[in-house]
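Action item from last week, closing it out:
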Amino acid sequence: MDFLLLEKQLKAVADANRLTLLSCLKNGEVCVCDLVDVLGLSQPAVSQQLKKLEESGIITARKVGTWKHYRLVEDQTPVMQAILSQLENKSTCQCTTECE
């Protein structure tokens, strides 16, 4: 087991906002502009939260125009699989066509 990766991932999920973001991403890819509405934070603040999740290897992003779309990495560690399985899907997190 890679203890450094485990440490980084556990630190990344030790935050309520980031857990909320992961709950949203369980439904599929979502644009950062839609995640701003979910958390009620500024876009830069949401982007910082997403950056921590991305740096830990839990999520990945792709750029669409001026926006980034985020999704869960398909191959999660067993620990992350267990954590993600405990999170409730947030059905209110859906990508709108406005940001594309």
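Closing note: Residues 31 and 53 are 15 Å apart (CA to CA).
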